[in-house]
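Reading a protein record of the kind used here takes only a little practice. To see the layout at work, look at the sequence and tokens printed below.
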Amino acid sequence: MHRYRSHTCGELRSADIGEDVRLSGWLHNRRNLGGILFIDLRDHYGIVQLVVRPDTAVNERLSSLSKESVVRIDGRVVARGAENVNPELPTGEVEVEVGEVEVLGGAEQIPFTINAEDGVNEERRLEYRFLDLRKERMHRNIMLRSAVIASIRRRMTGLGFNELATPILSATSPEGARDFLVPSRLHAGKFYALPQAPQQFKQLLMIAGFDRYFQIAPCFRDEDARADRSPGEFYQLDMEMSFVEQEDVFQVIEKLMTDLFEEFGNGRHVTSPFPRIPFREAMVRYGTDKPDLRAKLELVDVSQIFAGSSFKAFADKHVRALAVPDTAGQPRKFFDQMGEFAVEHGAKGLAWVRVGESEGDRPVLSGPIAKFLTEDNVDALLGALGAGPGHAVFFGAGEFDEVSRIMSAVRVEAARRAGHFEEGVFRFCWIVDFPMFEKNEDTGAIEFSHNPFSMPQGGLEALRSKDPLDVLAWQYDIVCNGVELSSGAIRNHEPELMYEAFGIAGYSREEVEREFGGMLRAFAFGAPPHGGIAPGIDRIVMLLADEPNIRETIAFPLNGNAQDLLMGAPSEVDESRLRELHLSLRKAPAPPQPK
């Protein structure tokens, strides 16, 4: 018999009854019922129940072991009594009577419960991540991630893509976030950068003639954490295609995402085809470029209705309205809670009215601001919203960006509370026609608003003849259930066009050549039209696992402060290592001590 096991803990079935077996695993749980010891033994594959008779050396040995100790047992498979069958376990029809035990790895007192969710804080979980990963939910998430990546590889290869690796140590690139820098020992005073994305290299692969590339690429960005973004590093399905237009990229990704999410979505339907929504339209209709289309409500710009109004709260402001049908039976508490929700998201309050049954030739409005609306306001408002009796209307007023942010959240929350939210589905969309440039609010300078390597719509003529803020790019985002999975673009592959675009963003010709000399040289030797995208693996798994936080889908993530609490990173290095790397540290001065 094998030194450690003849079977795994998850594979024993009623067909194995009467067989002598050897198992190894972790002592998951233990119960003592009238002297008979019942133990749940766990390994990677599952859980099986052990039974240990009283007054035996084995019983005494297993009674004294700490939970999570690793043991090897020899025993015989027996049938459970009909009343003891556990239908929730694949092994629930059998148990193993233990005859021998060997302790392979003892365990100290564990800092939190493994066999149940006990509300331990995230910092503690990350400090003992190797224990946290033993929990069923976390183990399931990590195995889901593995299966998703394996499926992606099969599907991409089936679509004619070739998996190719790109460098980790490279030069800095303006991807929109801070680089992680690596000092060079051999070249004093110079630094490598860890890739924010393999952007330039995958374009170079297209120029080199490989036509269809992909990889599960590690990316590194020195940015703050969010629920859907892990600081430090993340993984993406990086892909690029030659001789394509925007729609060609969409067709590949739509097939991949539809098949992938239906394979791992546990019955949740993927709605297709994915709608294409222009960026500016998305900002008006949904208040965000990451709309959750499960919410069956839309915002409407009603600013013109209140232009010059005597109602000062709305007059000459950007005003967005949200009509919510079927609210006639909603109590006042519904409106109060929506107001509280808006305040939590930064609003000073949330104006609203109810639309009641008509008296005469028009519906009657009630609510806190109804008395401030003129008959002309009401007629124009209900016409613009398509609202009538039974509707509630919520309003946001102020600056465009602030109103968009607040009313975007209000739209989804109102849909959930009022029953206009579609559960059990994955609703994808493409956000298209992004502006090529934007104005920095602090400096007034023109900057790239998205990927700087994108092709402007209209090409060189558009760059030279249009206001930069009116130039659109062949850029696109894919969004699912309100989560942005990726940005992508048809690439700029013409040297003169690249000089012009970067010139508008404030780069001199010399700076472009210094920063992107490799790309420019490549463009000069015959570059095909090409484009691509890079959906985030972590976010895909987060959606499929139905987890609210991306760190729940990563085996060893950094915490919200970009620290590895298990391994102690980042850490200090000694002076000899700094000298070897030609570095000296300038530490921040100590804060003044109170007198």
Q: What stands out?
A: The chain has 15 helices and 23 strands. The longest helix spans residues 136-158.
